[in-house]
Structure formats: C-alpha cells, structure tokens
Write a structure and sequence with these properties.
By secondary structure, this protein is an alpha/beta fold. The protein folds into 2 domains: 5-243, Alpha-Beta Barrel (TIM Barrel); 286-360, Arc Repressor Mutant, subunit A (Orthogonal Bundle). It is 38% helix and 22% strand. Bound molecules: iron/sulfur cluster (SF4).
Length: 360
C-alpha cells in the first residue's frame, strides 16, 4: 500500500481536560487497554518502508511500561522504516517515567512531544489541565541522556485571563529547557468540551500574543514554519509537514484518519464502536477536489507551495484548478509569489480560514 506515514491513536487519558476536543476516554479499567492492543494489530497492513510514525492520543504514556513495550513492539514487528525515519510519541510530563523512556529508546523512538499547555498554575486551572508537570527539566535531560534529542513542547495561548506578559513567560520557560520545537496553539473553545459555555474566547490580545510568539522564539533560534509550529532550522516535524503537503498515511485506532492519496476515512470516535468493528466513515472526493484540498492545506506552511512539488504530488496544475481564486488571494494580500509558487503572507497565516474557504 502507498502509505508514507503511520499514525496510531491511543485513546486513554488519566482525566479529561476541560478544553479537549480530541477523542479519548478517562478512567477506564485496564481490561480496555488489553482489548485495544489486541484489536489494533488487526488494522495493520503491508506498506512500503515508512518515513514517519506518530503515536498520539489521548495519552500514549499512560500505557503501563509493559503495554507501551507491546504497542511499540507491534509497530516494529509489522512495519519497516526508512533510513532517517522520524518516530514521535506524545507524552504527558508526569507519566514519562525513566521506565517508559527506556521502552521508547529500545524501540527506536527518536522524538517526544510533551503536552505542557502552560507552566502557570492559574492558567492550568482555567484550562482544567489536571496532570502535573513534575520535574520537566529532569525528564528532558533523561530523554537527552538516552539519545532522544528531538523534543517538542505544546503550549496554549489566548486563554481567558492570560496576559501577553504571562504568555511571554510561558514561551521563555519552555525555551529555557533547551527544546528544538514548540507548538503554540490558540485556544479554541469547541462545542462539546467542558469549557464550552463556561468561558468566552478573548480575542483582543490575540495579535499581540501572535507577534510575541515570533519575537520570543526567534531569540532562541526557533522560527515559525506553520501556523502553530516553530522549530530550529532542520528540526521541523517531518510527519506533520508530510501531512500538510498531502502525504499518505495509515491511521489506526479509534478516531484515527487515514489517507491513501484519493480517499480519506476515519475510524469511529468511540472505543466501544471501534472494538465492535463499526466501519470507518469515508470521505470520497473527485480527484480535482482532492487536489484543491491539498493545495489549500499546503498554505498552512510558511513555505507554501512550489508548483513543481504540487504537480508531482497531485498530478494537477494549480492554476488550472483555482487560477482566479489564487490571483484574488494575492490581490487581497493573503498570498504572495515566492520562487516558482505562492506562499502565505503574515496576514494569510492569521486569516488562514479565508485562504481555505477560497480554495476548497
Ligand atoms: S488535552 Fe490531551 S491529556 Fe487532556 S484530555 Fe485531551 S488528549 Fe487527554
């Protein structure tokens, strides 16, 4: 099968954070994890050697070390990896113990993404973020000592009650830990989360925080390469970059999405349904519309599209698909010419929804 990447969704969390719209279950008995591991292997298919693997959730590091060992062993036993592969596992700081780090290292994981969201207790409380940060510096040092040098921290901004100064403090505290990659997500209060209806999103400081992010991170050598992602040059997340540029991936586990270059399908966002074999929801699109979708998502990145790469990926010429719309976006100052292609302007990143709706 033509998959370039693999995504595994681990749907377990210790407790549900108030803002979370990802699918996960909190407080389930260990037997569910056993059933999950048994079912997961049924979703594996033969692929070419993979360029990247991303184990996300949920909280993969909530699995007991023996369960994590089994999960990563299943991956190793069923998939081959390309030389220079990237293998990320998402973890919560308080569950990333030395025993789990040993398991990650033994299986060849080379990148860890840690959900911090904020260092400030008041903001963590607003977010309903329950886990503890523990000694994060020590955890990162332990990863480094074991050869996992690629480290990302997730932070959230535009939290009600958060000042620009508090956001700068969070950014600096993250960077002072020596990380090479940072994801800075604006809080979106989504329907169906516990935060919905409790707090309104404050927009007024949004732009100031957006600017502060570039400014503070630049002093540490990290630059924005996608709407919400910053890295030292060369430390960008290859898995996510491939997906923004229309790469193919196999997604396993409840709520996981797969894309084979033509069709996208998503497993049921319910552990019980997924275990019972409820079929995935399929999103079929004609090839031209799929190519437009790939065009639109590529403009999430700072580099945007170079036309030879777009044509190689989709088999379409962007001007034939959306010529007038692209010209209009340039006219509006949302896209600008770069090399043999187009890239989003600063405004085009801030108003990415407008770029998407023009091209989809
Ligand atoms: S934000 Fe992360 S840790 Fe919190 S409930 Fe969602 S998936 Fe779990």
């Amino acid at each position: 099968m033509p998959y370039e990447s693999l995504y595994l969704h681990v749907p377990f969390c210790a407790a549900k954070c108030d803002y979370c719209a990802f699918y996960s279950e909190a407080g389930l008995a260990p037997a569910w994890r056993r059933r999950y591991l048994d079912r997961l292997r049924e979703e594996f298919v033969e692929t070419e050697p993979l360029a990247s693997i991303f184990v996300g959730g949920g909280t993969p590091s909530l699995l007991e070390p023996a369960e994590l060992d089994e999960l990563l062993g299943l991956v190793q036993g069923n998939f081959r990896l390309q030389p220079g592969y990237e293998w990320t596992v998402e973890c919560n700081p308080d569950s990333l113990t030395p025993a789990r780090i040993e398991v990650l290292v033994r299986h060849g994981v080379n990148r860890v993404s840690l959900g911090v969201q904020s260092f400030l207790p008041t903001l963590r409380q607003t977010l309903g973020r329950r886990g503890e940060l523990g000694d994060l510096g020590r955890t990162l040092a332990c990863l480094r000592a074991n050869g996992i040098l690629r480290q990302n921290l997730d932070l959230i901004f535009a939290v009600p009650g958060q000042s620009v100064a508090a956001w700068r403090e969070d950014l600096a505290r993250a960077c002072d830990l020596g990380i090479e990659h940072l994801s800075a997500y604006a809080l979106t209060i989504e329907e169906g989360t516990r935060l919905a209806g409790r707090l309104a999103t404050e927009e007024e400081d949004f732009e100031a925080m957006w600017e502060a992010t570039d400014e503070v991170l630049a002093t540490y050598g990290l630059r924005r390469y996608e709407i919400s992602n910053f890295a030292r040059p060369g430390a960008e997340c290859r898995h996510n970059l491939a997906i923004w540029y229309g790469g193919t991936y196999l997604g396993c586990g409840p709520a996981a999405t797969s894309f084979d270059g033509t069709t996208r399908w998503t497993q049921p966002a319910s552990l019980a349904d997924w275990l019972a074999g409820v079929p995935p929801e399929r999103d079929e699109l004609p090839p031209r519309e799929r190519a437009c979708e790939i065009l639109a998502f590529g403009f999430r990145t700072i580099a945007g599209w170079q036309w030879p790469a777009f044509e190689a990926r989709t088999g379409f010429v962007a001007q034939d698909l959306r010529g007038p719309e692209l010209a209009e976006l340039v006219e509006q100052g949302l896209l600008e010419p770069r090399g043999d292609g187009l890239a989003p302007t600063r405004l085009g990143l801030l108003l990415n929804d407008s770029v998407l709706s023009a091209l989809l």
